[in-house]
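User: Sequence in, structure out. Go.
Assistant: Echoing your sequence, followed by the structure tokens.
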Amino acid sequence: MHNVGWLKGATPVGFTETIDVPGLLINANRPAIEAALDKEITLVIGDAKTMTRSEKEAAASRVQSQILPIERIEAFWTWAAMEDRLRVECRGDMSPQAILGIELRTVPPHRRAIRARGHSYAVPDRSAGRKPFPWNTGVRSVG
């Protein structure tokens, strides 16, 4: 009990600390609990149904591609609610593609590209017969 009588109109405030007994027991018996959980999961699923790493990645990619259109709809309605000055915000785990309304695309590299000194990426050569810019002098053709 803490005496806060020196504050006008304040009543005493009480605090207590307790130990998380279930958490402590689980932490103390972690290996046995993990073994029991593994046994139960194996009984339910079976060893024959486990997936390889590449199958897991393919399944996760497939699920994510199905979630993205739904997140786009959610983001649309969230932005609409914000426009109406409602106090809403996007979920923290929502895809940035959905929030910003963009689509990531992979494009093939440009056939004729130049690599500028000091840069680790290829810059498309847009000069097409024109004299190169002064800062592109001394670069070699990659394509």
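User: And one key feature?
Assistant: The mean pLDDT is 76.
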